Amino acid sequence: MFTGIIEAQAQVKAIRDEQANRHFTLSCPFTHELKIDQSVAHNGVCLTVVALEGDTYTVTAIAETLSRTNLGQLKEGDKVNLERCLLANSRYDGHIVQGHVDQVGICEEVRDQQGSWLFRFSYQPQAAGNVTVEKGSICVNGISLTVVESGENFFSVAIIPYTYEFTNLHAVKPGDQVNLEFDIIGKYVARLLQK
């Protein structure tokens, strides 16, 4: 389980395809602390460390992951947001994040708010449980954010300077895809209301 509080960014050092799988080799500030079999969220996608070599580590994304997330668009040199799993004795700063991306969204607008930024994202109604509510939680590229405006198949979030600079949101522009994980509690409520 994760909280959506980004710990660092990793740089993609190499990408290798093997049948339908894609192996990503990355480098980050805490590579030396990682171990094989450890789960790490990459742009909000929970992936398992499968190899360690020097200052790099490797994770593997299967076809399902590549089709539902923006990881398939990564290139060497790109940066991804990282979060290691929640420790049982940690503060719970974000919201419940599983690292299971529901779908991608499209950045529709980035508006400078004179000291902060307002991002508007749209998404296709792929599942009945993918909804947002104003002041509710949403996970964008692994970042726990509060919804400012919520509509049918779109939402906006306000970004403070720290989040803008410390995550890969500063590189997101209109037309770009982002990974979306909708609030797990909201998804369960929506599912129960369907019955």
Automatic annotation (TrEMBL):
GO molecular function, a single term: riboflavin synthase activity
Catalytic activity, EC: 2.5.1.9
Superkingdom of source: Bacteria
Domain Lumazine-binding, chain residue ranges per copy: 1-95, 96-193
Keyword Transferase: yes
InterPro entries, A to Z: ATP_synth_asu-like_sf, Lumazine-bd, Lumazine-bd_dom, Riboflavin_synthase-like_b-brl
Gene3D superfamilies: 2.40.30.20
Function text: Catalyzes the dismutation of two molecules of 6,7-dimethyl-8-ribityllumazine, resulting in the formation of riboflavin and 5-amino-6-(D-ribitylamino)uracil.
Record's protein name: Riboflavin synthase
